[in-house]
Amino acid sequence: MTDLTDLQPTPITLANGVILNYVRAGQGPVLIFIHGAMGDWRSWGPQWRAFTRHFDCISYSRRYSHPNPNRMPSPDHSALVDAEDLGLFLDALGIEKAILVGSSYGGFTALALAVAAPARVAALVAVEPPMMRYAEMEPEGAVIAARFRAETVLPAREAFARGDDAEGARTLTRGIGGKRPADAAPPPNTVMAARLQNMLAARMLALSSDEFPLLHPDALAALPMPILLMSGAQTAPVHAAIFRALRARMPNAQVVIVPGSGHSVSREMPDAFNAVVAGFLDAVSAPL
User: Fold this and answer.
1) May I ask the CATH class of domain 4-283?
2) pLDDT at 151 over 90
3) Which of 100, 183, 235, 277 is the most exposed place for a label (fewest CB within 10 A)?
């Protein structure tokens, strides 16, 4: 079984002119992995062997992530734009319907496509989608969200605006990851190197006019496909607040909170993540 990093990504041009790089392996129902804000197609290494045994797996880099060459201006870049790209990506590959597994902003993207085109999503796994508007719907969450905006969003935006991309990326990394458990190992060098290669993706989100657009609660509650929402028990307060508000408005979704994990469950607790997602997909396999 091939490891993800043994593969070379293939570029594909979408109908809107955007170029996305992707890798594909395995057999079975189509499963698309969607990475977070400062990741790329390599982010799913800990999942690749486990899922290519049973699924036709695709891992791709979103619009501004490594090694995509896209540099076109996008002042309103958001999960809505990424969802449009993902729909066109499915078109370009001739895929009518797929399972979506997204982490962080990738989970946000997956939910955005599910709302826009529910018939194209067979099942969906979203790990802590950063849907800030949901935290702001609750009094306690609104306080936490305001603090996150003041301490992370605005300083990162200011850093990117003055051209200090490295400081902007560091600010986002600290804010998104939150306080790490005392016994947690730092991110591997490969993870940090990948983040540095994806500063353009972070920059385009940070400078967007609305990087956290609202997906209406009624639309999410009405989604017809099987949905799994996953969170880390030790995640940052802002993610915990978003997750509480989101799950309360999605009674149709299954919910799993992974002990010992922070925001990046698929990387921090890969065995637990793989087991939970595999079990969920096995249980809902009939409609896939």
Assistant:
1) alpha beta
2) yes
3) 183
